[in-house]
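Annotated sample (chain length 167).
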Amino acid sequence: MLGIDCGSENTGYGVVELDDAGHLRCIVSGTVRASARLAMAVRLNKIFKGLQEVIEEYNPDKVALEDVFYAVNVKSALKLGQVRGVAMLVASNAGLEVAEYAPLTIKSAVVGYGRAEKHQVQQMVTRLLRLEAPPESPDAADALAIAICHLHTEATVGRQRASRGTR
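Output written by the structure step:
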């Protein structure tokens, strides 16, 4: 499962697995960095290539993104939308299903509180994945949180289906 935290300068990514015993394991996490000094088209291309490399190397089965949220700055929202489009294109190009989650849903799934602060998300991701140190950046931590949210949601839906089938 690949989680992607979209940003026009720093796009975080994290590949997480959930084993049969219900234990989460971090395969890789990192950040695709694209300087604000670069033209937007060049940044988008760098993000495309960076995410494409992650997908080719780690072969995730699905991708999850943070859904669009309210932004005060219209320019920032447009840039974010462009990066999200690139992330969806990379995933679709690889034949991967894309899931989207609201920020409140992601934080609730990982921290238990939808209005958690970034450092709380980072601490909980470190604990849930039993990492020796927090992820290299808040963007990578957010990407791991998105992947964890999807895996937890998928597991819950699977348990609900199984319980309906036994009645």
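Annotation: The chain has a mean pLDDT of 92.
Annotation: The two ends are 31 Å apart (CA to CA).
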